[in-house]
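Help! Submission page says 'invalid entity' but I think these are all valid:
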Amino acid sequence: MATLYERLGGDGGIAALVDEIVEAHMQNPQIKARFTPYRDDPVHLEAVKGHLREFLTSGSGGPGDYHGKSMREAHRGMNISEAEYMAAIDDILAVLDRHEIDPQTRQEMLGIAYSLKDDIMHV
Ligand code: HEM
């Protein structure tokens, strides 16, 4: 079976997913306040997006390493609530749907997202 990386569309697919997920977060009433400030800091936004691409690529069996912070470190001090976490996952699933990602791949992504919960929520 193709790797998760391949099923997400490789580098091009992952770059599009990241762009659309970040844009969805910026429009999601529940979490937009966390993300819209980055519109005024395109350099920082591009750095975070680069880390998101690397995180997804290396975590899905693609090439290269992740150079960003650990999940606990990246989200430390934000005190992200369960409702916010669910809102972010909703955005991710909506974008996967739009890309017609198959149900099994969608489940795998959901599983990965849930496995990271304790390092992201309320840290
Ligand atoms: C499955 C869930 C999530 C994953 C996999 C994830 C992943 C990441 C990654 C890889 C980074 C980049 C870290 C770096 O640049 O070093 C990041 C940054 C960030 N995340 Fe998340 N995240 C998740 C959920 C959330 C949620 C629920 C929120 C808030 C509602 C959030 C808010 C942020 C913010 C604001 C940053 C930028 C931090 C900075 O400026 O350095 N994340 N996330």
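Support: the input was valid. A stray whitespace character was the problem, and the output above is from the cleaned input. Residues 31, 34, 48, 51-52, 55, 68-69, 74-75, 80, 84-85, 88, 113, 116, 120 surround protoporphyrin IX containing FE (CB under 6 Å).
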